[in-house]
Amino acid sequence: MSIPTPPATPPGPTPHTTSPVRTPPRTQLSTPPPRFVTHIDDAAIASLRAYYAQVLPPVVSQTGPSPRILDLCSSWTSHFPSRIYDAVGKGEVEVWGLGMNARELERNPVFRDGGGWGVWDLNREGKGDVGVAVKATILKTVRGSGGEVEVGSPSPSTQPQHQEAGKEQGDTPPLLDATTCVVSTDYLTQPLSVFSSLLRLTKPGGSVHLTISNRCFPTKAIARWLRVDEEERLQMVGDYLFFAGWKRIEIVELSDGRVRGSDGDGSGEGEGEQGGLGAFMRALGMDAGRRDPLWVVRGVKE
Predict the structure, then answer these.
(1) Which range is most confident: 21-25, 70-74, 285-289?
(2) Is 9 within a domain?
(3) How many beta carbons lie within 10 A of that of residue 227, not counting itself?
(4) Which carries the bigger pLDDT value, residue 82 or residue 7?
(5) Comparison of pLDDT for 226 and 189, the residue scoring more
(6) Spatial distance between the Cα atoms of 274 and 17, rounded to a whole number of angstroms
(7) Residue 220 lies in a domain
(8) Which helix (H) or strand (E) segment is 300 a member of?
(9) CA–CA distances in Å: residue 104 to residues 132, 147, 209
(10) For residue 273, what pLDDT is reported?
(11) In sequence order, which residues have a C-beta less than 8 Å from that of residue 266 and are 6 or more positions away?
């Protein structure tokens, strides 16, 4: 089955609501056992990797700082393209991860060289600040080029929001160039705290990329996620970013969920699905012409 190079449609502005985003009700907070599975299908993963290859920070010149990517709500795989893994191994890109399960995170190859990960539950009361999470976990072991990186707690706008330990006030510590989060935004119970604190950690011009599908664990997703349709979910995630202070918010469709034939009609013809496996799947009542739909809601810090 061929996979179109994403984005499948041009991005457009997110339609924001006028009412403030309210903190969703709390959900089940227990940490599940490790699960070494993927939560979107192979076609969606391939589309996401192709998208990341287009938008994530490129390898910079050796005279500049290495870009840094944070994978939020991470697990044993991050779906990055091979160039990111190669750059991490060469020390040209640094990737950090925050997740819920240590056994999953330690299996992720992108954190093994030149990066770091931390276990943190962003849904716990008072734990929705990404800067505090990074400082309490990753920054205990990861060192920047000028010594240990420190990120201060949130402070009034008249005070510096980030400061490196042992440095004079005014020195700028390394911050994030990009953040990714794959099919996990629907579980966040403190989204405004998470995304406003993430904005403070991000360099001007840095970006956030929130991948959304139609799959979820119903017992863990916030209540409103289960009540609204896919379009309203995308709008809600866009509102999270908007009210957290992000700019240039867009929705990118990577897949509408249909498998298209060579003529682009969505029939699946020309893809080897009309006989053999495709016929067998249809005999079982399974739609061989469907794949996981996938979108990215993204924003930029200006």
Answers:
(1) 70-74
(2) no
(3) 9
(4) 82
(5) 189
(6) 43
(7) yes
(8) strand 294-300
(9) 22, 28, 21
(10) 40
(11) 258, 259, 260, 289
End-to-end CA distance of the chain: 39
Phi and psi at residue 258, to the nearest 5°: -105, 140
pLDDT digits (tens, 9 = 90+) for 9-65: 445 555 555 455 555 555 444 556 766 455 677 888 899 999 999 999 875 555 567
Lowest-pLDDT range of 103-112, 174-183, 218-227: 218-227
Q: Which domain holds residue 83?
A: 36-151+168-300
235 band by pLDDT with thresholds 50, 70 and 90 = very high
Position 79 pLDDT exceeds 80: yes
Specify the CATH number for the domain of residue 121.
Answer: 3.40.50.150
Q: How many Cβ atoms from other residues are within 10 Å of residue 10's Cβ?
A: 8
In a domain, 101, yes or no: yes
d(Cα 103, Cα 96) in Å, to the nearest integer? Answer: 16
Nearest to 131 by CA among 186, 85, 173: 173
Residues of the chain with pLDDT > 70, as a percent, come to 60
CA dist., res. 209 & res. 185, Å (int) = 11
Q: Quick check: is 6 in a domain?
A: no
Compute the distance between CA of residue 211 and CA of residue 151 in angstroms, rounded to an integer. 26
Burial class (CB in 10 A: 0-12, 13-18, 19+), 205: exposed
Helix axes 191-201, 230-244, angle to 10 degrees: 50
CA distance linking residue 288 with residue 280, whole number of Å: 9
Q: What is the domain count for the chain?
A: 1
Q: Calculate mean pLDDT across residues 225-251.
A: 91
3-state DSSP call for residue 135?
helix
Alpha carbon distance 15, 167 (integer Å)? 42
